[in-house]
Design a protein that fits this description.
This protein has 252 residues and is an all-alpha fold. It has a domain of 62 residues. Helices cover 78% and strands 0% of the residues. The protein contains eleven helices and no strands. The radius of gyration is 23 Å and the shape is globular. The two termini are 43 Å apart.
Length: 252
């Protein structure tokens, strides 16, 4: 499809704006994560604010240099995506279980992250020794189970998070699962079935709203209009179900 010159310029400018915005976001987010959750918590917990400010200014440059080095040696976006997927497969259950099990603590996440790379190196030999075929399912399954053999004992052998913090979290969120230590102090349980239903519907509405105009633009008009109409129905249903919270400003 041929586009007018002006529209091409807008698309190119939008692409670079989105690229730079994503790049700066990842650098700032990564620096904040490394400083507050790593450096400040475990390496220098009692340093001055000026010291933390200097480190915060240096970390984005270190991350940028590392990113350029990875980009230089990278030969395939698909291979990079697969590598990231395998490296994060082990920590995924920790991110999920921390909503359902009060015993998950920061050391659980650190152990899962630390074990991912060694398990990735050991995976070919382990699969061969176990007699399992190479494949996406076996690769991801091995990473999940192998890293669990590390982070689960670490979780049970290290101290849980502060009881007051856990109680405040449960009072706000009231998550389902293994929270019996704190559920007795909650005022009123949340109807999680309705909440999860609205979450699923909201996720669909967001995806359909994003894909619908693209489908119409690239020629799949029936699919695009169907997605757009269903997304509109989902948005209206959620708005009415929540009593017009978006209009009254009470959603927060």
């Amino acid at each position: 499809m041929l586009l007018p010159i002006g529209l091409r310029g807008v698309l190119v400018a939008s692409f670079f704006a989105a690229f730079l915005s994503t790049l700066s976001t990842q650098l700032n987010w990564g620096a904040s994560y490394l400083l507050n959750d790593g450096y400040k918590r475990f390496l220098k917990p009692k340093a001055s604010e000026r010291h933390y400010l200097v480190v915060a200014r240096l970390l984005p440059w270190i991350l940028a240099v590392g990113a350029m080095a990875v980009a230089y040696v990278n030969r395939s976006i698909g291979a990079s995506f697969t590598l990231i997927l395998n490296l994060t497969a082990g920590v995924g259950p920790v991110y999920l279980l921390r909503w359902f099990w009060w015993r998950i603590n920061p050391w659980s996440e650190i152990a899962a992250m630390s074990a991912s790379l060694p398990m990735l190196w050991l995976r070919p030999y382990a699969l061969q020794w176990l007699g399992l075929l190479e494949g996406s399912i076996t690769h991801l399954g091995f990473m999940v189970l192998a890293t669990a053999l590390v982070w689960l004992p670490v979780t049970l052998l290290t101290a849980p998070s502060d009881s007051r913090t856990l109680q405040e979290f449960y009072a706000r969120v009231q998550p389902p699962g293994w929270w019996s230590h704190f559920s007795s102090k909650a005022k009123q349980p949340i109807a999680w079935r309705a909440v999860l239903w609205q979450w699923a519907l909201g996720t669909y509405a967001l995806l359909a709203t994003t894909v619908a105009p693209l489908a119409i633009w690239f020629g799949s008009k029936p699919i695009g209009w169907a997605l757009g109409l269903s997304a509109l129905v989902a948005w209206v249903w959620m708005w009415r179900k929540n009593g017009g919270l978006m209009r009254t400003g009470e959603a927060g």
